[in-house]
Protein 1
Amino acid sequence: MRIGTLGNGMMAEALATHWVKAGHEVMIGGRDPGRAAEVARRVGGTAGSLTEAASYGDVVLLAVPAEVAVEIAQLVPAGTTLIDCTNALNHSDFTLAQPATAEEISRAVPGVHVVKAFNLAADAVWRNPPAGLGVPICADDGLEVVAQLVRDVGCEPIPAGGLVRAKLLEATAALAIGIWVSGGDVRAMFPPSEAAFGTVPPG
Ligand SMILES: NC(=O)c1ccc[n+]([C@@H]2O[C@H](COP(=O)([O-])OP(=O)(O)OC[C@H]3O[C@@H](n4cnc5c(N)ncnc54)[C@H](OP(=O)(O)O)[C@@H]3O)[C@@H](O)[C@H]2O)c1
């Protein structure tokens, strides 16, 4: 499929590299043509402006700072699937600067299928993900398309509910990053499911 990225930073490069290798056509969109072209050269895609990348194809990866996410998302035409990987982190105390970015984007661009995914791990992880890494996805529409793009990165999609639950993924990222930065082991919070719960989910 055709995928545009809004942003030419670390997340755009990490994910686009896999998508090009999987056979997708990717346009790296940036506000600085030179930076976008450089990243496009490294990943094997083409480069364009933010406006060109927004309407390049079926899917757009929104990979800009969360504080400009709603503004930049307005470039995306209705009918497009928009992957929101942003985290609106307050780096002073690892809380959220805005409580529900994905839902805010969705309200601002009706007709765009906003999907929250790829926000839980760092770009270095996406560059070279460990085998079997699960990627939670929150979406009302576009789940299957993004699930395939998760597999194309070498990971396992985990459907995690509708877009109303994206705020939980955003909060989870803030919690996990705060623990990780203070030296804690985030993975230790989640024992293997069989060991913890047998075959019956908790509830
Ligand atoms: N890096 C991670 O480990 C990670 C993990 C999960 C989620 N995220 C989230 O993913 C998003 C992107 O992160 P990143 O690490 O890729 O950031 P990054 O490397 O700093 O790249 C940010 C991109 O946004 C562009 N940008 C910044 N301000 C802009 C504005 N006002 N208008 C238009 N474009 C603007 C930058 O353009 P220029 O190149 O022109 O400056 C750059 O292309 C963030 O919301 C972050 O919270 C990051």
Protein 2
Amino acid sequence: MEVGYYSNAVTEESTRRSPRHAEGEKHMENKEKQPLEEGQRGLAEGDEEGARPVQVSRRGFLIGAGAGVVATGAAAAGYITLTPPKQVEVIKEVPKEVIKEVEVVKEVVKEVPVPAEAVSAEPSTRLRTVTLNVNGQDFELEVEAHWTLARVLRDSLALTGTKMACDHGMCGACTILVNGTPVYACMQLAIREAGKEILTVEGLAQEGKLHPLQAAFIEGYGTQCGYCASGFLVTAKALLDANPDPTVGDIKEALGGNLCRCGSYHEVITSVLAAAKAMRA
Ligand code: FES
Ligand code: FES
């Protein structure tokens, strides 16, 4: 069969063993049969040292060498330990230098004064009394210094109309009015709001009558799930108190800090416009 220059077809000729190949194999077979010389001898299993010479065939040698490589690899990988563990030294007595250093540290600690507040760990000692004016009424409350206004309104006064969503000053759900200005109640410490006028959504309705904003939100579908509604309502009240005839741009700007997950923004704006119109009439 003719084979082209670029063909990589395997011909019968190319697979045939060469005379040199056959010679080499014969040579190796003869070598395996030869008796071992001194120094090439090993021990058969169970024999006493030097009792019986063992011929190690090429195949046997390769298997043994392979096992050796595996064992070395396993040792390197930490699967087996080839060296015996070191003996652990047991210290029966604390060294004098260590005792001396501990005494020095004790002396230093004694000299550092501990603040009195840090010693009084009783919860009652951490409560402070504060008077909050909420929706036109004074409330004397015991609060901890780190409690937020949102927490006190909801947990201490049960005014749950103020919602908590992000608790990080990012969504506006907790908006209330403090002295007429919208603030995030989750970002204010209750203890700092003493003497200020606080208005929550519960304070919008007067004498059983809804505020025009509340009525307009109901009429104009200004809310879906309602979670954002109290924040929008009090913020819009602050806007209409300052600007009775706002434009859409004014409303968008004023309500820019309030988010609505339900996406009721269009209805919120039209509701505020409707409330403004009703209040001007
Ligand atoms: S809960 Fe206060 S800003 Fe979101
Ligand atoms: S109505 Fe659901 S978040 Fe505004």
